[in-house]
Automatic annotation (TrEMBL):
Keyword Transmembrane helix appears in the UniProt entry: yes
Matching InterPro entries: LSM_dom_sf, MS_channel_C, MscS-like_channel, MscS_beta-dom_sf, MscS_channel_2nd, MscS_channel_C_sf, MscS_channel_TM-2
Molecular functions (GO terms): mechanosensitive monoatomic ion channel activity
Mechanosensitive ion channel MscS domain sequence ranges: 115-182
Basic and acidic residues bias (residue ranges): 328-340
Protein name: Mechanosensitive ion channel-like protein
Organism (species): Pseudidiomarina maritima
TM region(s), chain numbering: 26-49, 70-93, 99-128
GO CC list: plasma membrane
């Protein structure tokens, strides 16, 4: 029994062995263990407080999820800072001397880790300003689009529609231009450009494209916003350029690629049903002089082919006003309309 007590006494005496000295403070194995123990307890307390805040917010439906996230992150930073100061004080280091050392260290850190400090400050600003929240769908100046998943100390995690996680430094959200698609409202309007051949009846185009918009499940048709519209926007080089303008349902706002593909699919289907030609780039050739006797045999064949092409185009223009020929039940399936 006495031997066991001696072993225990020697074990605790080992904690008093000196490791190094900071000024007048002696750092021992026991002080290091006490420092680590306090930091671990601080982290556990921080996690408990964060879980308590989340449970409290779940009972209060009026609190937004983004506000809860910002509150929990700020609570974590504050608790860890207090715990760190308490742990340092328990070792025996004078906090006033530590403040002087920290200020001197801060100058060096300011030069060597300027980007890290900038990203940390930007992250705190984002949490307080709430211009960027978890769950927002954003588009960066670099062209990256996705949903905000986490706002951390140094960076923000954005998940694209292809389920790719992109880590963006927080400073990019403060210094660069960011388009937040869902900052205050989740209703957005989309512009889908398309073109038809010259000579096409505009009213027929409008009828065909509005029918296409009605078939797309992403189109908002609850009466709170304007119904889909077709705008004639430009006389193009080879086409009459239009835009389908439609309001989207909230769940479709963060899927711009799939939504645009769904509208284009249905627009092309309707244009084919109404025999409306989708043009391709072309140029008119004006011949100043012509001699029929100077035309080679193969050139005469080419001329006859050109005449047949012109007759075919005239026939297509005559059929442009016809009723849709395709059976609605036999339309090709629109995969993009289901990609939500």
């Amino acid at each position: 029994m006495e031997q066991l007590l001696n072993q225990i006494s020697s074990f605790f005496h080992w904690f008093e062995h000196e490791i190094f000295t900071v000024g007048e403070t002696i750092i021992t194995y026991g002080s290091v263990a006490r420092l680590l123990f306090i930091l671990i307890i601080t982290y556990v307390v921080s996690r408990v407080l964060q879980n308590a805040l989340r449970r409290f917010a779940s009972y209060r439906k009026s609190m937004a999820q983004s506000s809860v996230y910002a509150l929990t992150r700020i609570t974590h930073y504050v608790v860890m800072l207090i715990g760190f100061l308490v742990a340092v004080s328990s070792v025996g280091i004078d906090l006033t001397k530590f403040a002087i050392f920290a200020s001197a260290l801060g100058i060096g850190v300011g030069f060597g880790l300027q980007n890290l400090i900038s990203n940390f400050t930007a992250g705190i600003m984002l949490l307080f300003e709430k211009t960027l929240k978890v769950g927002d769908f954003v588009e960066l100046e670099s062209g990256v689009t996705g949903e905000v998943k986490e706002i951390n100390i140094r960076s923000t995690i954005i998940t694209t529609n292809d389920n790719i996680d992109i880590i963006v430094p927080n400073s990019e959200f403060v210094s660069g231009r960011v388009t937040n698609w869902t900052m205050r409202d989740t209703y957005r309007r989309i512009h889908v450009p398309f073109g038809v051949a010259y000579g096409t009846d505009k009213e027929l185009v409008r009828k065909a494209v509005l029918e296409a918009a009605e078939r797309v499940p992403h189109t908002l048709q609850d009466g709170t916003h304007k119904p889909p519209q077709v705008w004639f926007v430009e006389f193009g080089d080879s086409s009459l350029n239009f835009e389908l303008v439609a309001w989207l349902k909230p769940e479709a706002v963060n899927r711009p690629g799939a939504v645009k593909a769904a509208f284009l699919w249905e627009i092309h289907t309707s244009l084919e049903e109404y025999k409306i030609e989708v043009p391709f780039p072309q140029r008119d050739l004006h011949i100043r002089s012509w001699s029929e006797h100077a035309v080679m045999p193969h050139s005469r064949a080419s001329t006859r082919g050109l005449q047949k092409q012109q007759e075919l185009e005239q026939q297509q223009e005559a059929d442009a006003t016809a009723e849709p020929s395709a059976d609605p039940e036999q339309r090709p399936e629109n995969d993009a309309a289901k990609d939500l």
